[in-house]
């Protein structure tokens, strides 16, 4: 409706302006006399305004091509006359004159290019030659040669860590237990699991939210959210983000990206049980507290952080995806500080039953501490775990300015997909190899510089060996390479595993010690034990540490850390 209302007076104006062009030079722009109607006098004034703003010249020369019988030719030639001048490119073109709205002629005709016959096109090219054509080409030339200015890539460092694990809720306590070869796997006590063929897990026996989560929320939230909020706030405290520091942070440049593989399974399961009685018995928070994004959202609300905030769920690769994406937000200049990692809590009947149905779990119930045994010939599946891991990532100059203690530098990483099977790894490890090679290329790291790898190694028959072969393919020439698996002591924390293992890598960089592989008593055929860390901790000056995480669906992820220099 608006276009038609504008088009009618516009066409009238165009015709009037063009018809008067041939004798424009002999008439002044004085007030109308008796020989001119008000509409004709107004059309001349409008045309003169355009000529003035576009650096016009002799109108008789410019409109010589208007002596065609076709109205289409008239409009085309007139639009050709208006084809970009310097004033057009330094403003919004015709829209700057205030006559046509934001879309100018495009809103009326759909395009500035009108169909003309061959003869008209030839005549138009002649009419548009010379100065007018040169002006038209000049801006296009400028655009094609303009280069993006070089900007130095922003560096990302780790300035804080927080964990909630079966081996402790402090990064130092957790890592000391790993170095000592302590197992956090035991019989499940949260519920009666005698009916299940698997009755063991890396279960958190004691956990308190006091001082970290408001009591009212603590009663309503799923454990995966409680673990996440607690680990996130502990990472802030570990990073020296006190109330005073928080007061001066630009909160629009602080974000949270903490994911979960399974989300609030307990809250949702409880809602289903309540629904069996009546919908009125359902927890009104069952939907928001079951979603994987709500943990990041609640933490941001608590902190008032308004930067990037979301979650990623890629099964057991979740944490690595979150860490790399959080770092990318900092590198791209979208944030200065990011809390990132993962959290999961699925040691409940439906969680245990689901993985039992997948035939993925170990059934070594008689000796829980021996159940998780990556690369050992007696392994019979992974052991479920629970918990959370959070890293505080920060832009280097931002961290230095506030005097932060820098633990390590985040170098980069990559993702790939096997595109092969829901739960089985690709037979030749193509996706894992590609992921590692892309991570090295993206980070600018040489293969020979990677001398420590915290492997995904879940203690499954197929997965451990395929990953080992991929690692040897990529780093087999590195005589200094040491490989271990944190899961041998805490089990598989699902979406939280990558973050907890990233903490292990950072701790190895800080302390100069790598933790042992426990339960590796009968190495699988083809596995070189000279590459794997033995049953005791080992001294190692880490040059570059790599952490792998893979998930159901064929999701592969690799991230790299190094000492900050």
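Sequence proposed for the structure above (565 residues):
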């Amino acid at each position: 409706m608006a276009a038609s209302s504008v088009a009618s007076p516009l066409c009238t104006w165009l015709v009037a302006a063009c018809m008067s062009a041939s004798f424009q030079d002999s008439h002044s722009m004085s007030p109308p006399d008796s020989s001119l109607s008000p509409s004709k006098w107004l059309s001349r004034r409008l045309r003169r305004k355009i000529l003035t703003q576009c650096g016009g010249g002799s109108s008789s020369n410019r409109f010589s091509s208007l002596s065609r019988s076709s109205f289409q030719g008239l409009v085309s030639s007139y639009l050709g006359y208006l084809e970009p001048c310097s004033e057009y490119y330094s403003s919004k073109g015709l829209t700057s004159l205030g006559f046509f709205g934001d879309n100018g002629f495009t809103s009326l005709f759909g395009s500035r290019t009108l169909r003309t016959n061959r003869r008209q096109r030839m005549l138009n090219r002649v009419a548009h030659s010379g100065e007018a054509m040169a002006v038209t080409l000049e801006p296009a030339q400028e655009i094609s040669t303009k280069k993006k200015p070089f900007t130095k890539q922003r560096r990302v460092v780790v300035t804080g860590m927080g964990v909630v694990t079966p081996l402790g809720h402090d990064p130092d306590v957790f890592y000391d237990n790993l170095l000592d070869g302590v197992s956090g796997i035991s019989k499940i006590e949260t519920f009666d699991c005698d009916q299940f063929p698997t009755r063991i897990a890396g279960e958190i026996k004691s956990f308190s939210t006091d001082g970290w989560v408001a009591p009212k929320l603590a009663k309503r939230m799923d454990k995966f959210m409680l673990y996440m909020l607690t680990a996130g706030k502990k990472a802030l405290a570990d990073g020296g983000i006190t109330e005073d520091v928080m007061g001066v942070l630009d909160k629009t440049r602080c974000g949270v990206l903490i994911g979960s593989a399974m989300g609030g399974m307990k809250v949702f399961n409880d809602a289903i049980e309540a629904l069996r009685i009546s919908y009125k018995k359902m927890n009104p928070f069952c939907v928001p507290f079951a979603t994987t994004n709500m943990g990041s959202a609640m933490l941001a609300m608590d902190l008032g952080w308004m930067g990037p905030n979301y979650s990623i769920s890629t099964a057991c690769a979740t944490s690595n995806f979150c860490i790399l994406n959080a770092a990318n937000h900092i590198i791209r200049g979208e944030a200065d500080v990011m809390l990132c990692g993962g959290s999961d809590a699925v040691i409940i009947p439906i969680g245990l039953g689901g993985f039992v149905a997948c035939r993925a779990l170990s059934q070594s119930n008689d000796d829980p501490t021996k159940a998780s045994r990556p690369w050992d010939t007696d392994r019979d599946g992974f052991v479920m775990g629970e918990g959370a891991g959070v890293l505080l990532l920060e832009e280097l100059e931002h961290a230095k300015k506030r005097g932060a203690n820098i633990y390590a530098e985040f170098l980069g990483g990559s993702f790939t997909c096997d595109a092969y099977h829901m739960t089985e790894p690709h037979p030749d490890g193509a996706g894992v190899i590609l992921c590692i090679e892309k991570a090295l290329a993206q980070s600018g790291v040489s293969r020979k510089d990677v001398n420590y790898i915290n492997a995904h190694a879940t203690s499954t028959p197929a997965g451990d060996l395929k990953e080992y072969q991929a690692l040897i393919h990529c780093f087999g020439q590195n005589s200094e390479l040491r490989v271990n698996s944190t899961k041998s002591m805490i089990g598989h924390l699902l979406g939280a595993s990558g973050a907890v293992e990233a903490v292990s890598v950072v701790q190895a960089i800080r302390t100069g010690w790598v933790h042992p592989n426990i339960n590796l008593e009968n190495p699988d055929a083809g596995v070189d034990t000279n590459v794997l860390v033995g049953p005791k901790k080992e001294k190692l000056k880490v040059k570059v540490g790599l952490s792998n995480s893979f998930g159901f669906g064929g999701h592969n992820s690799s991230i790299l850390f190094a000492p900050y220099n």
